[in-house]
Amino acid sequence: MFPHFCNFAFLSPIFSRYRQCWRESPLHTVAIQTSLDGLKEYVLPTQPYSRSTAKAEKESEYAPWSHPPICTSTLPGINDTLCVYTSPSFASGRGISLFTIPSLAHQFAALPAFQAPLPPHINKPTHTYHTSAIPGKGIGMLASQALSFGDRVTAHTPAFIAYLESELSTPLRETWWRTAVDRLPEGVKKEFMGLTYVYGDERVRVQDIVKANTFQIEVGGVNHLVVWPETSRLNHACAPNAQYVIDTDTLTHYVHVTRPIAPGEEITISYTPPLTPTQTRQSQLHHGFNFICTCPRCKSPTSDETLSRIQTLQAHLNDWSPASPASPAMAEELLQLYCDEGLQGFMDAAYGFAALAYGAVGDADAAVRYAGLAREAIEMKDGRGVPNFGLWEGFLEGGARAHWSWRRRV
Ligand SMILES: C[S@@+](CC[C@H](N)C(=O)[O-])C[C@H]1O[C@@H](n2cnc3c(N)ncnc32)[C@H](O)[C@@H]1O
């Protein structure tokens, strides 16, 4: 049985913030939903692309894609075809392959990522980390030097993007995805094929790799699975010391440090929403990622009590009725609890509550300080395109005194 894989991504403007699990069916029970006629239109999955083919001479017709797209027949559930699009020259020759519908490939191709040279820090090796085997976790990423809040750990473009569908059978999907991966330049293809997997079944190796390593993004209203090979080595912790964000213009996956990391310490992100109870997180990790989390938060006897106190405090701070017990002291307690739980990468809401709580008692300096921290935390977690970023930007531009919350609790 295939488990499902969960991960998150946040995107705009053609993207939107999204969090969802990828559920896959067992290989042996998946019905082939495309007609046999459609098979005639498939190319051989492992047939290597030859630039000497006549079609390659017309490559500019397909720019930025190097090959004439090869497509499925029209799939009834989406009333469209899915095609393989590859650009070996993407990101200075790192390359990228997509499996998506033509209109969305067009949207991807219009992104700055395809239209202009990428900023030089993207896809550059950094000296911040190295990979190593971690007992019980496979390969992980360890800090190569002391890292501080806000330090950038990685900035990479993806190798593989696939439309999330349930139209194709697992074997057929494997055929198409393999074609997409086979067309990548050798370096990134090797990295992709060397990534970890869940089942170990060679027949579905590409899907297996995607299952263990994918993030999801929504593009034009459609979920896509995305693999960033370097970032894939980040293991999970329920109190992670790093946070990721995706720049939708450049398709770049960034990872930043959210609390000090000592040399040799493992760098981690959270695969699950960390403000859910231990059992929920455990179940998601087990079913989605096939491992039992043994991190300190999962073993802590008081972590769930702290979560419930966090929720109570947030409910009070969100209560603007005259009877509300909300106060700056309550906001400070909330901030402390987030820190105690190791959730420094998820403090945007807590900082926001603090900004409002201080503004509500007429402390403009503290309100502005916390609004700035809320904006910074959102930028690091969700990017600048999300509405909450604009909300705090607006607060800071207008000033605490102009905000609706000003002196609302005096
Ligand atoms: C995205 S990969 C992370 C890198 C992976 N460890 C590797 O060897 O390439 C996800 C897989 O890593 C392993 N993993 C990640 N975090 C873990 C943790 N906290 N404990 C145990 N295994 C973990 C699981 O096997 C999971 O399916």
How would you sum up this structure in a few lines?
By secondary structure, the chain is of the alpha+beta class. The chain has 14 helices and 16 strands. A hairpin with a 3-residue loop joins β7 and β8.
What does this structure look like?
The chain is an alpha+beta fold and 410 residues long. The protein has two domains: 5-267, SET domain (Beta-clip-like, Beta Complex), CATH 2.170.270; 300-402. Helices cover 33% and strands 18% of the residues. The chain is built from 14 helices and 16 strands. The protein has helices spanning 36-39, 90-93, 102-109, 112-115, 170-182, 186-193, 205-213, 278-289, 296-299, 303-317, 328-340, 348-360, 364-381, 387-398, and strands spanning 5-9, 15-16, 18-22, 70-71, 83-87, 96-100, 129-134, 138-143, 152-156, 160-163, 215-219, 222-227, 235-236, 242-247, 252-257, 266-269. Strands 2-11-12-10-6-5-4 form a seven-stranded mixed sheet, sandwiched between helices. A hairpin with a 2-residue loop joins β11 (215-219) and β12. α10 runs antiparallel to α11 (328-340), α12 packs antiparallel against α13 (364-381) and α13 (364-381) packs antiparallel against α14 (387-398). The longest helix has 18 residues, at 364-381. It is globular, with a radius of gyration of 23 Å. The N and C termini lie far apart (59 Å). Residues 1-57 have low confidence and may be disordered. It binds S-adenosylmethionine. The site of S-adenosylmethionine has 19 residues, from β8, α7 and β13.
